[in-house]
Design a protein that fits this description.
single chain, 145 residues, alpha/beta, Oxidized Rhodanese, domain 1, 6 strands, 34% helix, globular, disordered N terminus
């Protein structure tokens, strides 16, 4: 059964955008997580995989130490240095940014930090690279970025 939010997003997607499947838009809606200063959106691995097919966001690995990445990553910013390295992010605070780490602990902290600083379009990969890998999606492994 679809939630009211999914139905609304689906109707908007079909009515306004025409060709975008309502299920894709509904999945992208994700779950909003309220935090001091606003909220960020959790996204699942299957949804992120769909989003990456038509990437329209800045993709950030915040895990330390470096233990791999998901293809199409734009930046590597340690979760505990996000506030000091804002210059590495797109300047617009409303630009879509998706954060991830190994398990989602570090990306949750980074997401909360960015929301507190006034960023309004922050997304967090639930379960991080661990869940991404469990879904059978590829990871780029390596050492020392």
């Amino acid at each position: 059964m679809m939630t009211r939010q999914q139905v609304l997003v689906g109707l908007l997607g079909v009515g306004v955008l025409g060709v975008v499947p309502a299920t894709v838009l509904a999945a992208e809606a994700g779950s909003r997580v309220p935090v001091p200063g606003g909220a960020y959106t959790n996204v699942t691995s299957p949804t992120l995989k769909q989003m990456l097919e038509r990437k329209d966001f800045f993709f950030v690995n915040v895990h330390i130490p470096y233990e791999g990445e998901i293809a199409k990553t734009d930046a590597f910013i340690p979760f505990d240095q996000v506030e000091k390295q804002l210059h590495l992010l797109p300047a617009r605070k409303d630009a879509k940014k998706v954060l991830y780490c190994m398990s989602d602990r570090m990306s949750t902290i980074a997401s909360e930090t960015l929301v507190r600083l006034g960023y309004t379009n922050i997304w967090n990969l639930q379960g991080g690279m661990v869940e991404w890998g469990k879904q059978g999606y590829p990871l780029i492994s390596g050492s020392g970025k």
